[in-house]
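Progress against Task 2.4 (sequence-to-structure conversion) is shown through the following example record, which the project officer requested during the mid-term review.
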Amino acid sequence: MSGHSKWANIKHKKERSDAKRGKIFTKIGREIYVAVKQGGPDPEGNSKLKDIIAKAKAANMPNDNIARSIKKAAGAGENENYEEIIYEGYGPSGVAVIVEAMTDNRNRTASDVRHVFDKYGGNLGTTGCVSYMFDKKGIIIIERTEGVDEDTLIMAALEAGAEDVTSEEEFFEVVTSVNDFSAVREGMEKAGFEFLEAQFNMIPQTTVKLDEGSRISFEKIIDALEDNDDVQNIYHNWEE
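Structure tokens generated for the chain above:
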């Protein structure tokens, strides 16, 4: 179960600036807010919240920040309300793009996302226009270190219900179905493994290569979307 990763969208561990890290924490805080509103503040009785807390810890979000986000959501009134919206479209050369947003102003976010696509040679499409090209999977990334035994990791992942494990030079990638993600994540945690990432991902079934000009334009789309506070996740089928 080793070899080159089949997916191009897996983000590698990298140093982030304080500003970038703060933006990540803000986005995770919104996910916590929505999860608490939907299922309550107790992670033991709210599996979605439990998964997001694991994602937050993998992103090195301090426990105090996590606790404050849960407390804020639990005490927030009806005036505060975020909704999850998914946008689909195409970048230069037909690259398929899925944008997951969380917003308190649907019109503002739609306008901002459309502007980014239009500005850099893409176009926003209708719901379902590209999502059929992707499979939703749970992805757990574990750093390859001297303390991580590959055979033990693979055995623990498969026994917990993982679909596959791939071995890379710097990390291991555990893939799960959507339904089994929580069980696999908890099984890996109990086995003593720490995560670089633990979240859902939209995996492209096929990928697209870009020439230099299209690549530069598409990177501008990605950068602009990532800078938008309402945008939570971006998935695409560009073969990086």
